[in-house]
Structure formats: structure tokens, C-alpha cells
């Protein structure tokens, strides 16, 4: 089967001949592919081996909240589609089917989605659900009935708990919005990152010996942490560099427009036009307005020392 083919329920012919063996399947958005998701994917592989089935992940090309317009409170995603697929492949040997999420699909109950698509086309004989998995139209109220369907074995994965809290994408977004990178990264199981291209700025940092790379973010739907100064790792052309970042405005310069600026600690190479991936390790402080560039430079030297203390181990 083509593990990356995007399927649309409006064209059921696209679903034919996808699999030739019975499968154990899990369904979900897997935003962030955090430790809870990794646990589900590990369970999926284990069930597949135990039952002699092929492991299968069904995910969606867009988050349901985006399609349904439920993007209140500036809802953002923890991972892009390519990041999700790459991460799922890293944590599981399962085939991956991407379903186009539409308003038509949103109307289907979990039972309807299973009976109309998962069972006949993907040959699902065992369905693995996460502890808080609620795929399908919740208003139909038949999620629990899915567990009682006669033609499928349903297995529920246990919740994964961190610091007394069940790990979820929502909890990770909350930690990110608070700038609590230790809690965020602890639940993710890796350092949260964003990607973009280095673009030209005003070169003010060069005048105080702290040149910065201005990052034009590649995905406007990707969640950003709370504004502030951070200790980060910056990956440029496959090489990891110790760095510190300013995410937010620059009040000392009279500029409050949010911007991601990264100062590389161990390199002075020309970065313009290069792709950069920034891994957030720790939030150092709030962004504040300084009386002068000299005062800003003095604080940045202190930030540099704090950054080096945090970046003992690569992400």
C-alpha cells in the first residue's frame, strides 16, 4: 500500500486495494507525537506482533478544529504534517494512511467511519484507541458503542502521566504558552522546535557584538512558546549550534512586532537564505526595554552564560 496516499471519503474508489492483510489500527491526529502518542504507537506494534496483523495508523491532513472553525484562543499546532509523519515513522513500523479531513467526514460517527471505511477497505480486525481518543462525530454519542461492535476487537491504551497530569496535546500547548519548556519537552519526549529561513534584518545586533539571524517561520499554524529570551539549539545545514533566541518584540528598539531572532554562540558564518531549525531548551527571562544598547549588551552577556549552562547535552 502507499503509506502516504491522501484519501478522500468522497471518492471511495481511492480506498480499494489498499491492504491485502488484516490490520490492527489506531486513529488520531497525533499532533506533536508526544510521549502519550509514542506509547500508543508502541502498543500498536506490540499488538501487531502478538496477533500476527499488520500495524496501521490512520491520521488526517488537517486538524478537525481548523476545518470546523473551532480555532478560538489562537489555536495552533504542535507539528506540521511532515513533522507528524516523520515522527510516527520514527516511533512505529506501521503503515500510515492520511485521510483528507472535511466537513463531510466530520459528520460521521465513530461507528459509521469504522463500518464504512476502516473495516471494509483497511481490513481492521483490531482497533487500538488512546485513553482520550474521540475520533468521529462526538454528537452522535456512539463512541462507547464502538467498543461493543461484534466484528472488531477494541483495545484501549492506558494514559501516560507526567507530574501527576495525563500527557495530552492540550497540556503541552498550555506549558508552551507558559514558557515552561522543561514541562513541555518532558511531555513531548524531545525538544520542541520550529523551522524557517534566515532573512535579512536591521543588523542592530552586530553593533553590540551580538549578531542575530532573523528567522522567517515556515508554518504560520505552528505554535510558538511564550514570548521571551530562550536557550536554544539551532540546526543549520544539519549541524547543531549552541544559541540563544529572542521571541517577541524588541522594545529597546521601539519594535513590538513578534520576531524570532537567534544568536549563534559558536559560529560567525553567513546564515542568510539558509534553513534553520530552532530547538527550545529553557526560557531565560521576559523581554524588557533597556535604557540603552549598552545595557542590552550587558544583559545579553549574562544571558549567554545562562545559555551555556543549559546547553550541556544536544537535543
Summarize the structure in words:
- With 315 residues, the chain is α/β, with parallel strands linked by helices.
- Helix content is 28%, strand content 28%.
- β2 (23-27), α1 and β3 form a beta-alpha-beta unit.
- The longest helix has 18 residues, at 293-310.
- The mean pLDDT is 86.
Largest sheet entry: 6 strands, parallel
> Largest sheet, order of strands side by side?
1-4-3-2-5-6
What's the pLDDT, averaged over the residues?
Answer: 86
Order of helices and strands: EEHEHHEHHEHEEEHHEEEEEEH
- What is the CA-CA span between the terminal residues? 34 Å
Shape type: elongated
Count of discrete alpha- or pi-helical segments spanning 4 or more residues = 9
Fraction of helical residues: 25-40%
Structural Rg: 22 Å
Q: In percent, how much strand structure appears in the residues? A: 25-35%
Category from helices, strands and their pairing:
alpha/beta
Tally of DSSP β-strands: 14
Low-confidence stretches: none
Brief overview, please?
The chain is α/β, with parallel strands linked by helices.
List the keywords:
elongated, six-stranded parallel β-sheet, 9 helices, 28% strand, alpha/beta, six-stranded antiparallel barrel, single chain, 315 residues, 14 strands
Secondary-structure blueprint:
Layout: E1 6-7, E2 23-27, H1 35-51, E3 54-60, H2 64-67, H3 81-91, E4 95-99, H4 103-106, H5 110-122, E5 124-129, H6 143-146, E6 153-156, E7 161-162, E8 165-166, H7 169-177, H8 181-188, E9 193-199, E10 213-217, E11 228-236, E12 239-250, E13 255-264, E14 275-285, H9 293-310
Parallel strand pairs: 1-4, 2-3, 2-5, 3-4, 5-6
Antiparallel strand pairs: 7-8, 9-10, 9-14, 10-13, 11-12, 11-14, 12-13
